[in-house]
């Protein structure tokens, strides 16, 4: 009988200003991310066999996402109304789901996935952190201060992490890897 | 004639959660700071001949401040009502001033000070950053996420910094030094 390891690594990936904003002011998306962070993100995403994100993130990034669909990485979009996006659905490449985060991870494991990236936005990070579903959180810390924007977590909490690794992506961008 | 160098180094020092909060929830002060950060802070403060902070910070930390008064470091408290604190005034050790940040720095330079630490809270950091009065910003980044609390800067801005140095104060606390 074959032993099947049921653990799937789940890693949150985020880019943030020094003062903790994951958007610049009320600008949607991460247009503020440095070139170095964008290159890192696209490279590292290739090491995951699935990723999840919210429907707002899908709508902002959809042209890039639709151009890069691949069976090597299932993109799962969390939405209360998956039927609304039926036209975009590409089984095993791009799917829409109303499952909660926990059920969704169970489903991905069942389908044999081993490494899942959680890509935001704020609501999705908040759910995964609050429900303790992340093994690691990777933060690209840009050397900028915005004063306003969306926050990583939208509710009061006190989460303690462990610093696992830190390095520079370029002169002014740090990559900080934390375990949860 | 003696040439007098009129530059005074002005360095903001702050401890922050990973999600950019300088207080934990609505708890005043920095009781959340790690032992390593507190040790660093007390050690590094000795390298400054003056420091400024807001009156709320004074009220929170006053017992420690009053125990440690010294002519080696002038503590200047920014308040709209300095007369209210006349009983606490110790010339050259602890003074209260209604001067704006810029005028206050000019006054400190005039008195021969060479290195000034800006210690918060949020309003004070905001004023010094908005008026571009800091040469450097040092952030102790604790491996914690709070979800709510006071932010470093209380108004929309887009400040770009340069990463100058980064190191760990202990396993989970990073010290990041930025130039402005």
In short:
2 copies of one chain form a homodimer. Chain A has 180 residues and is α/β, with parallel strands linked by helices.
Describe this structure in words.
The structure is a homodimer of 180-residue chains. By secondary structure, chain A is an alpha/beta fold. Helix content of chain A is 24%, strand content 29%. Chain A has 4 helices and 10 strands, in the order βαβαββαβαβββββ. Chain A has helices at 35-45, 55-67, 101-110, 122-130; strands at 9-16, 50-54, 74-78, 94-97, 115-118, 136-142, 144-145, 159-160, 162-170, 173-179. An 8-stranded mixed β-sheet of chain A has the order 4-3-2-5-1-6-10-9, sandwiched between helices. The longest helix of chain A is centred in the middle third of the chain and has 13 residues, at 55-67. At the A-B interface, strand 7, strand 8, strand 9 and strand 10 of A face strand 7, strand 8, strand 9 and strand 10 of B. Strand 8 (159-160) of chain A pairs antiparallel with strand 7 (144-145) of chain B, so a sheet runs across the interface.
Q: Count the strands of chain A?
A: 10
Mean pLDDT of chain A: 95
Adjacency order of strands in the biggest sheet of chain A: 4-3-2-5-1-6-10-9
**Structural class designation of chain A:** alpha/beta
**Rg of chain A (CA only):** 16 Å
**Biggest interface and residues each:** A-B, 39 and 39 residues
Helix fraction of chain A? Answer: 10-25%
As a percent range, the share of strand residues of chain A is: 25-35%
Largest sheet of chain A: 8 strands, mixed
* Assembly type: homodimer
Shape annotation of chain A: globular
Q: Spans of chain A of 5+ residues with little confidence (pLDDT < 50)?
A: none
User: How many angstroms separate the termini of chain A?
Assistant: 33 Å
């Amino acid at each position: 009988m074959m032993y099947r390891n049921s653990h799937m690594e789940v890693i949150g990936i985020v880019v943030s200003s020094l003062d903790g904003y994951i958007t610049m002011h009320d600008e949607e998306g991460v247009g503020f991310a440095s070139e170095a962070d964008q290159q890192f993100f696209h490279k590292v995403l290739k090491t995951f066999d699935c990723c999840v994100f919210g429907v707002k993130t899908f709508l902002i990034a959809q042209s890039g996402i639709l151009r890069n669909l691949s069976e090597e990485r299932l993109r799962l979009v969390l939405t209360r109304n998956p039927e609304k996006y039926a036209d975009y659905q590409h089984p095993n490449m791009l799917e829409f789901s109303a499952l909660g985060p926990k059920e969704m991870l169970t489903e991905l494991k069942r389908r044999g996935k081993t490494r899942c990236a959680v890509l935001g936005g704020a609501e999705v990070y908040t759910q995964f952190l609050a429900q303790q579903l992340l093994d690691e959180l990777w933060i690209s810390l840009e050397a900028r201060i915005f004063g306003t924007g969306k926050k990583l977590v939208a509710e009061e909490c006190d989460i303690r992490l462990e610093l696992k690794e830190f390095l520079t992506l370029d002169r002014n961008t740090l990559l900080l890897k934390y375990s949860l």
